[in-house]
Amino acid sequence: MTGCAAAARASGSRFLIVLLVSLLAACGQNEPPWGLRNISGFMPSLDFTLTEASDGATVHGKDFRGKVVLLYFGYTHCPDVCPTTLALLRHAVKALGTNADQVRILFVSVDPARDTLAQLKTYAAAFGPGVVGLRGSADELKAFTRHYRISYGYGKPDSRGAYEVSHSSAVYVFDREGEIRLLIGSTDSAPVITGDLQRLLAETPGASM
Amino acid sequence: MKRMLFTIVMLGMVVTAHAGQPPVSVSDARMRWLPGDLPMAGYFVITSNAPGRLRLLGAASPAFGDVMVHRSLEESGVTHMAHVDGVDLNPGQSVAFAPGGYHLMLMGRTQELHAGEEVPVTLRFNDDQTLVVNFRVTGAQDE
After folding, report:
1. Å from B44 to nearest chain A CA?
2. How far is CA A117 from CA A114, A120, B109, B140, in A?
3. A11-33 pLDDT tens trace
4. What is the pLDDT of residue B74?
5. Could you please report the per-residue DSSP string of chain A?
6. Fewest CB within 10 angstroms: A86, A133, A203, B140, which?
7. Distance between the two ends of chain B, CA-based, in angstroms?
8. Nearest CB to B78: which of A77, A86, A166?
């Protein structure tokens, strides 16, 4: 940005002003790259109606305004990818220190048939504070996932009735104002996530995008 | 010399006596604890020292009713799990059972488990070869 400020001071002729305007526009686009994938504007802002597993209360997306939200879809009978992802997110958030409380990890069950509120509550709690288990009826879940174009599907039940659930592997990051900003993929590391969360938390309201 | 020969013969007998155990080394065997009776995932790194191809066919543990070899796959941003019939190990090859890939799916706990405990798991290979490996139970939040 120092170069941009210098260009602004050097203004003089009309030509220079035109040059300056285009330079400043370029400066705006040249914000330092994010460690995670920037998906600003590619999804609707955070909005849903679901039930919070910890107390059975109805919660809405807007209830999380003021917090940076990490939105993840999974199910409790998922022993590999879901716990690994939640542990990674928890580590990344924990590394924020005193700011960790400014972030919420929302774990939305895509398997409401098996994930009772009680089961979801103990599951979310196992991953530490700040992890919120959310459950919706089949219809609520369908409405929510359709709105965000999140895919999930159920495999054939085996002889014991156990079945596999395929689900989106991404984690969606919303800023304090509930706007979609970043996407965490399966190869992103905890330090990269922590770094971007720090940056999001440092933003002043209204300064996004 | 005679003594040395005797030792070699004895060593040969020891190896013969353990013919049911495959020449593999296993490290970092662990399983991630989850609450209640939710299925857990087991991870390890296995290296084959066998002269020929070895195949891991399955596993069992007294702490679980059922253990399966699974593999998580990610396709176009969607994760799913698949049961696998076996994992081939070429001579000298190492295969990591790691998060997001191959793992043991440990189902139906027969006992309460806690982080820090060790749980024996028997890995089953071709030709009735078996190997008992102690898996460390890690906390849900451990990486």
Report:
1. 13
2. 10, 5, 21, 19
3. 444 555 444 444 444 445 567 99
4. 85
5. -HHHHHHHHT--SHHHHHHHHHHHHHHHHTPPPPSSEE-TTSSPPS--EEEETTT--EEEGGGGTTSEEEEEEE-TT--SHHHHHHHHHHHHHHTTGGGGGGEEEEEEES-TTT--HHHHHHHHHTT-TTEEEEE--HHHHHHHHHHHT--EEE----TTS---EEEE--EEEE-TTS-EEEEE-TT--HHHHHHHHHHHHHSPTT---
6. A203
7. 53
8. A166
**pTM above 0.90?**
no
Pairing of strands B87-89, B54-60: antiparallel
User: Which residues in chain B are closer than 8 Å to A123, comparing Cβ atoms?
Assistant: 34-35, 38
Do B38 and A80 contact (CB within 8 A), yes or no?
no
> Closest Cα partner for A71 from A34, A98, A44, A96?
A44
Q: What is the ipTM of this complex?
A: 0.82
Tokens 């998580």 found at: B72
Helix count and strand count (H, E) for chain B: 1, 10
